[in-house]
Amino acid sequence: MPLDVILLVLFGALLHATWNAIIKAGSDKSLDAALISAGGAVSALPFLPLLPLPHASAWPFIGASAILQFAYFQLVAAAYRAGDIGLVYPLMRGCAPLLIAATSGFILQENLSGGALVGTMTISAGVLTLALEARRGSSRAIILSLANACVIASYTYVDGIGARISGNAVSYTLWMSLLPPVLLFSWAASQRGAFAVVSHVRRNWWRGLIGGAGSIASYGLALWAMTKAPVATVAALRETAILFALVISITVFKEKASIWRYVAGVVIAIGGLVLKLA
């Protein structure tokens, strides 16, 4: 994998950890997730007239991605309500690249080199190691986390293919971002009432705008990288976001880090080095 691709994916991972921290710090995770999604759409709007439309063949992938993104945000909120973030986040983010690495040869006919496969597995092992530090968990949290890992793997495939056939990965990303917030806010209004939704938006719109810009930039960088390198490799490298999440948890949230966090950080760093050398 070229160095410039690696650096941009790592920057995207930092942005990913940042917008997740914004959701974690909020009082209402479901509505904050919807706000982040909406912020991404608002950030995309000014750039749409400057970019070519995705090829017609990519539009079905954009529609499928929107539905999967809706499911993703719903499962994120549900999993965090059911269990500790130290268990939920590693399971969701660590299992997804494993699923992709195991199936990319069949689905995309991408055969990873031995070094790339070792790097992918090493990064995933490092992320999953973080689950060992979780003190609280439940079978429901584990089931929701694993279900979301399947959703993450699914939309990674959908968007990886869609970005490649769209003719422009950035344009694909921006158009893809428009529909999920419509679905999320429609669902929230139907479940909790329009007044509660509007009140939350008025108080926290700035969080959604900042987090949404980071979210769309993070995912756009990943999709661009998938046009330059194997999807499974990019998906695994993107999970280094957990390293940035570790720094944020210690410096911002003042959380105490167990030995497992540092062990995981070393393992993930080794995995990233293996990917660079592969």
TrEMBL record:
Cellular location(s): Cell membrane
Domain of life of the native organism: Bacteria
GO biological process: lipid A biosynthetic process; lipopolysaccharide biosynthetic process
Gene3D superfamilies tied to this protein: 1.10.3730.20
GO cellular component labels: plasma membrane
Pfam family, one: EamA
Name the UniProt record assigns to this protein: Drug/metabolite transporter (DMT)-like permease
Originating species: Rhizobium laguerreae
Lineage per the UniProt record: Bacteria, Pseudomonadati, Pseudomonadota, Alphaproteobacteria, Hyphomicrobiales
